[in-house]
Amino acid sequence: MVILRIPAIVRLHRVPVPHTNEATYVLDGAGQRWVAKREADMGCEALLAEALTWLLARQVGVPVPDAAFCDDPNERAWLSAWLPHAKHWSAGLVGPVRNPKEAAAILALDAVVFNEARHGGNLLLVPEADGGASVVAIDADEARIGHPADLAAAGLVAPQPYILARGFPPGDWRVDALAAAERFVGLSEETLNEMVAQACDVAREPATAAVSTVLIERCRAAISLTEQYLALVGARS
Amino acid sequence: MMAVRLVSYVVDPYTDERVAVAALLSDDGRVQVIRALDPRVPEAAKANLECILRDIEEAPRMDALPVGAGAHAVVGAVLPLNLSLADAPAWVRDVLLGRAA
Q: Are residues A75 and A96 located together in one domain of the fold?
């Protein structure tokens, strides 16, 4: 799994929805359409979180858009492929989720990277003609894996679902979430170190060893972390 | 005073292609959603548009669209409407949205 490098982008205009960090529609030289968030706007920690979470997501089968990094020194932006005709999560979703196994893995991913920002704006729905929709996870810039020292100090605890999207998950996804957690447990140290090296290179994070240590520890504890997180999610009023 | 605000579906944010798909019609604080009869959006957009309109209809407001509507839905300026309430919904649907679409 390799993060694609894009040498240059052309900015069009901002995405007209609330974001923690400014998002912009951009095109690359080949005409590929992306949504960009600049390191200058979100910080190198958020860039590390985006890159590492995306690599993990792709490795364990969490539905996320294609991604890339624009390494033009004047831009330095995380790029997420634009998904046409997708909307944000809403509790009033009519019809079934078409990819529940993959979508349930979002819960395990968030438990591992300590992402508390899985609100409705960070879950896309791609509606289908028959009334169902596929769920796609976006925006991991607030995952605390971007702050490895803080996360290590916090210990093996799950994120709090204070702002988890209302109505998510829409069913009992426990079995599938735990199956995804097992896939995290199964990731080899070598694979995780490769991901960390790549993400740290993108974010210019020198503390590669510290990131590796906390990530390996959390992946080894993925089942327990996911269990904790699911309990907190289930206890929401 | 009644007021109306067009809701457009952004078919392509990169070219800014958009289609008027509905209008928010307010009268004395009450807001209703008037759908365009046959909005000319691509087939691939229809399921998304239907979800967006249902989201808006769940709790229509003049000041903003629900966050769940996402980036494909945008609202235009608030326009004053000097019509009787009985005439307004049909005028908005047949004339305003009819022309916009």
A: no
Q: Do residues B21 and B42 make contact, with C-beta atoms less than 8 angstroms apart?
A: no
CB contact under 8 A, A87 and B46: no
- DSSP assignment string, A68-117: EEE--TTT-EEEEE--TT-EE--TT--S-BS-HHHHHHHHHHHHHHT---
A131 shares its domain with A163: yes
The angle at the Cα of A148, spanning A142 to A153, to the nearest 5 degrees, equals 110
Global pTM value: 0.90
Determine the pLDDT at residue A49: 98
- The residue of chain B nearest to residue A89, with distances taken between CA atoms, is B68
In this structure, are A196 and A153 located in the same domain? yes
Measured between CB atoms, does A127 come within 8 Å of chain B? yes
Whole-angstrom distance, CA of residue A62 vs CA of residue A197? 21
Same-domain status, A181 and A226: yes
Contact B67 A87 (CB under 8 A): no
A86 touches chain B (CB under 8 A): yes
- Give the number of domains in chain A: 2
pLDDT in tens, A145-170: 999 999 999 999 999 999 999 889 88
Burial of A204 (0-12, 13-18, 19+ CB in 10 A): exposed
**Matching residue, tokens 């327990």:** A224
B44: nearest CB among A85, A91, A121: A85
What's the domain range around A183?
A: 88-234
